[in-house]
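Feature request disguised as a bug: please show the residue count (366) next to Valine dehydrogenase in the output. Example input:
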Amino acid sequence: MTDVTGAAADVLHTLFHSDQGGHEQVVLCQDRRSGLKAVIALHSTALGPALGGTRFYPYASEQEAVADALNLARGMSYKNAMAGLGHGGGKAVIIGDPERDKSEDLLLAYGRFVASLGGRYVTACDVGTYVADMDVVARECRWTTGRSPENGGAGDSSVLTAFGVYQGMRASAQHLWGDPSLRDRRIGVAGVGKVGHHLVEHLVEEGAEVLITDVRQEAVERIAGRHPSVSPVADTDALIRTEGLDIYAPCALGGALNDVSVPALTARIVCGAANNQLEHPGVEKDLADLGILYAPDYVVNAGGVIQVADELHGFDFERCRAKAAKIFDTTLAIFARAKEDGIPPAAAADRIAEQRMHEAARKPVR
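Example output, currently without the count:
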């Protein structure tokens, strides 16, 4: 761990003492030979070793990378708690363009940093990293999940992530309309990458009217070619303003729900795979005030982490799928708690997750 700049230290100090703070450990990693610059953030290990993916992204600044790692790690604590896993929350970000900067040496160096934590952090795939990358990382670190079946892993976790979001949508429909069916519902999916394209397949199979958009035109064309019934839309702004939209599914990067997008939404439900969809505290209340039902992101997108956690104990796909299917019941329970307490669903989910972490932290060590 070298060369922590003053700017990064300032960000760490600010977030350590803010509402996004409370993290147990933050490690800034640098390997000059490979060009690796990474941040590993452990938010909580109350429920067990921190588990969360590795994001490889060309952040505009070191401050932005640190802030993202901290926010994502905190979200993983809540996600793992709500998924009923014996894991706390952690996340890592590698600074750089994965298309240009990713190399075997860099991934091996990263694996050594993760290994140096001695099992307090278990890593996996995220935006910009793939199964093949985890296979490389695993050569230096046994606390690596999301590996290929050939290397003792479970493979692509996006399949169950999408399945969980689909279950969250069905639960949202049940709560709002009294019927979990998505047939003939008009659903907009923003981001049809690793998770989004699997979600589209579930929706098309059920008979929903699906609209899609993505910053990568080739991704849109690939989905439209595979599913002729799907309708491409110019961009996310056009998608959220589409008349008659029943459900909006943000499946790209975070911050999709903000002071600009929320007032423009026409959908009655927001349920998507993206992490950290609420750009800042208070957005969840804005959604509730507008009568928009928000399915908390870290609850409905937990299928992937359920899969990678199972990999540590001998992966069984059907067992994982059955557990991911319970996201339907968990989502309904959150809506019920929100109604009972008179708070938005996001706040209800936080209360339940925080209670679980608090109770685990109070248990005596044996």
